[in-house]
Amino acid sequence: MSNEPNQQLAKAPVSTELKAPPTPEEAAFELFQRQAKMLAASTLVPKDFQNNTANCGIAIEIARRLGVSAFMIAQNIDVIHGRPGFRATFMIAMVNASRRFTALKYRMTGEGATRACVAYCQELATGEQLEGPEVSMAMAKAEGWSTKNGSKWLTMPELMLRYRAAAFFARLYAPDVLLGMNTADELEDIDIPERNVTPAAKVPEVKGLFAPVETPAAAYKPLTLLAAKLEAADIGFAEATDYLRSQAVTEAATFDDITPEEAHDALVGFSHLAEALAPVAP
Known about the structure:
By secondary structure, the protein is α+β, with helices and mostly antiparallel strands. The protein contains 14 helices and six strands. Strands 3, 4, 5 and 6 form a four-stranded antiparallel beta sheet that branches. A two-stranded antiparallel ribbon has the order 1-2.
């Protein structure tokens, strides 16, 4: 029986190099990634977290800071206008669970347009009664919260007054509970300016104006008139151009309407413009 396979195994190089164990930081990061991937694979988390390891990683980080489960954070964060916000009910629960205050209560006053709410409780360490800022329907109208289409301030004002009063209280007395974040209701009430997606007008090609210096002087008639303006205003040619570009100047322009002030503000850029102007300067 041949010993050839055994001989080949014997000849195979054996690595004596020991792989260094991962550092504590590397091991922690590897565990963090595995946890984020597991959360992202779940169908029980909202769509903003499904198959999104990065978002789940952020949820885990927030959970660690607040001392709660990552699943609870994922379930209680809404992404509004691209920004994450806690649900008001979760924020109230965190304040009540902080063991620093008695349970939040709400003092309601007024009716209709004068309806208002103040969130209050007692600080356990001192026994002092703490009150948050008053939130009213007049405030909601002035801030534009109740004038938006589909605003909950019109359909459920009693609930919205309490939610916003609780958010104001938490921001004042327990900012660590919010971690600097808004509630989802607050984010919905923020006016986000619409982006202007209209394509910018195309600036006409300026062939004669920026032609090579060796172009015959006849091609520089517009430049001759500009040069006279600059000469009269005691403006150096090397300062030239943003104004010309912003005004979509063409080779047919006469520059008669360019004031010395406009020219001075405009003449920066296009380094070869000074060379183009030089042969035709008065």
